[in-house]
């Protein structure tokens, strides 16, 4: 039996799909260890959550600021944002299946109560001053020919 990860972690969570592990240290810092035992993301974050398994994107949080990294630890969106991803249940578009990655291309970000959009490669499409909570209509860079626009639910 091969030892991939030694017992120096408080918890270890298997990431289905790529076979890596999200690990938590004794001081509650989180990182990613590859299935080969090599550290891909040093355990420096307060939280790591997989947001897209196909392209390997992770939401990272430290000091209540959010960012996005890829499965190798490369920063896609710096940890400057108050929120990344739409609030669950607030938008009623059946084509939005991932609240963090809209239509497989656009990541909604919130800073100082203003929304913006960044693409999956980290390029800013709409600066944060562009929105105040409504994504209608979405920028054409986010839309595929077969998708619809997101409309905010009226409550």
List the helices and strands and how they pair.
Blueprint: E1 11-14, E2 21-24, E3 30-33, E4 39-45, E5 47-52, E6 57-62, E7 65-70, E8 75-81, E9 83-84, E10 106-111, E11 114-119, E12 124-131
Antiparallel strand pairs: 1-2, 2-3, 3-4, 5-6, 6-7, 7-8, 9-10, 10-11, 11-12
Alpha-carbon distance between the termini?
Answer: 56 Å
Overall pLDDT score: 80
Question: Fraction of residues in helices?
Answer: under 10%
How many runs of DSSP E, i.e. beta strands? 12
Query: How would you describe the shape?
Result: globular
Q: Pick out the low-confidence regions.
A: 145-155
Which sequence of strands runs across the widest sheet?
1-2-3-4
Total helices: the number is 0
The gyration radius over C-alpha positions equals: 17 Å
Biggest sheet overview: 4 strands, antiparallel
**What is the SS-derived class?**
mainly beta
Q: What fraction of the residues are assigned to beta strands by DSSP?
A: 35-45%
Q: What is the helix/strand order?
A: EEEEEEEEEEEE
Question: What does the model show?
Answer:
The chain starts with 10 loop residues before the first strand and ends in a 24-residue tail after the last strand. It is globular and about 50 Å long. It has strands at residues 11-14, 21-24, 30-33, 39-45, 47-52, 57-62, 65-70, 75-81, 83-84, 106-111, 114-119, 124-131. It has 155 residues and is mostly beta strands. It is built from no helices and twelve strands.
């Amino acid at each position: 039996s091969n030892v991939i990860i030694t017992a120096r972690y408080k918890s270890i969570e298997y990431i289905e799909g790529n076979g890596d592990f999200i690990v938590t240290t004794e001081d509650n810092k989180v990182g990613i260890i590859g299935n080969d035992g090599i550290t891909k993301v040093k355990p420096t974050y307060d939280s790591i959550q997989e947001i897209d398994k196909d392209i390997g994107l992770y939401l990272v949080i430290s000091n209540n600021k959010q960012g996005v990294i890829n499965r190798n630890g490369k920063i896609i969106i710096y940890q400057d944002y108050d929120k990344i991803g739409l609030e669950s249940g607030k938008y009623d578009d059946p084509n939005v299946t991932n609240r963090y990655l809209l239509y497989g291309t656009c990541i909604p970000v919130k800073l100082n109560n203003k929304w913006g959009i960044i693409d999956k490669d980290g390029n800013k499409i709409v600066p944060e001053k562009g929105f105040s909570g409504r994504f209608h209509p979405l920028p054409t860079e986010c839309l595929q020919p077969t998708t619809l626009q997101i409309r905010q639910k009226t409550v």
